[in-house]
């Protein structure tokens, strides 16, 4: 007697075994991809959280000078302003103080050049430029700067000199916060 045919799918047993292997491999691949997808989701979520933290941190960073002030200053000052800004953002307060002093001196000098009164910054006997406090007084006297600013600008000069010439004195964040406002106001007054 003949045995009846058992499978009616049109596939032989070997073909069915191969299909079953492919089906199992496909299931394993799906499971692997789903696992990777979960890992990617975790990594994506971690990156999103890091991005949010950086955005929050960036919001808390206050630049030394706002961009609307920086874009108006002569290009000759930009290198020093950038160096001061970098020092400020790194928390290098002494370097920032020294560079603020340089910005004040160079700003007054450049404004006098622009107004063709640079010779007033020189000592008539020696033809040497006066020191910064005297330049501040001269600029206030000839109307280059507001006379109410001279005390604050001389304090910045003192911070810069102390930072540059004293091993014992380190400038603090409070010193720089106190000095950056009059420095910004000077830049706005001279070049705004």
What does this structure look like?
70% of the residues lie in helices and 0% in strands. The longest helix is centred in the first third of the chain and has 48 residues. The model has no long low-confidence stretch (mean pLDDT 84).
Outline the fold blueprint.
Layout: H1 13-60, H2 67-70, H3 75-90, H4 93-114, H5 132-141, H6 150-165, H7 173-191
Helix pairs in contact: 3-4, 4-5, 4-6, 4-7, 5-6, 6-7
> What is the radius of gyration?
35 Å
Number of helices: 7
Helix content: over 70%
Beta-strand level of the residues, as a percent range? under 5%
Based on DSSP secondary structure assignment, what is the total number of beta strands?
Answer: 0
Provide keyphrases for this structure.
192 residues, rod-shaped, mainly alpha
Give a brief rundown of this model.
With 192 residues, the protein is mainly α.
């Amino acid at each position: 007697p003949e045995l009846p045919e058992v499978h009616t799918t049109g596939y032989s047993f070997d073909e069915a075994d191969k299909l079953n292997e492919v089906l199992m491999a496909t299931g394993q691949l799906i499971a692997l991809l789903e696992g990777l997808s979960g890992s990617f989701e975790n990594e994506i979520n971690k990156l999103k959280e890091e991005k949010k933290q950086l955005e929050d941190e960036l919001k808390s960073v206050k630049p030394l000078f706002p961009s609307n002030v920086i874009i108006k200053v002569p290009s000759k000052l930009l290198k020093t302003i950038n160096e001061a800004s970098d020092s400020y953002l790194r928390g290098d307060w002494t370097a920032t103080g020294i560079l603020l002093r340089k910005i004040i001196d160079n700003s007054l000098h450049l404004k006098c050049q622009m107004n063709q009164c640079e010779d007033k910054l020189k000592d008539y006997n020696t033809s040497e430029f006066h020191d910064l406090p005297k330049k501040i007084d001269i600029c206030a006297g000839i109307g280059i700067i507001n006379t109410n600013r001279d005390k604050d600008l001389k304090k910045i000069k003192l911070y810069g000199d102390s930072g540059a010439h004293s091993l014992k004195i380190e400038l603090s964040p409070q010193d720089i916060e106190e000095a950056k406002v009059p420095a910004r106001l000077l830049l706005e007054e001279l070049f705004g």
